[in-house]
Design brief:
mainly beta; 6-stranded antiparallel sheet; 45% strand
Length: 92
């Protein structure tokens, strides 16, 4: 299993729809895919610190995906696939 993802810090700005976040990355507001369509209103608040991943697929609508959000000092995964992969890795 490969966990060589490079994650970048960003700031949450807005969520126009269930699968899209607007984030400030390197001083620019960019669109980022949100893999978790859940409510998340208590986590995705303006100014929240996020971790995003650059995406390279030509078929994507966005160049980034939102992977996690900080709630205080706690990091919370927004990619429902990722925790399952960690558990699988740890069990093996």
């Amino acid at each position: 299993m490969n966990f060589d993802w490079k994650l970048f810090e960003a700031e949450f700005i807005d969520r126009p729809n269930r699968f899209l976040t607007l984030v400030r990355f390197n001083g620019v507001i960019v669109e980022s895919h949100l893999p978790d369509p859940g409510r998340l209103k208590e986590l995705l608040v303006p100014g929240a610190n996020l971790l995003i991943k650059k995406e390279n697929s030509m078929n994507r609508k966005t160049k980034f995906s939102t992977q996690a959000v900080f709630s205080g000092e706690q990091l919370i995964s927004l990619n429902t696939w990722l925790p399952n992969r960690f558990v699988e890795f740890l069990l093996k």
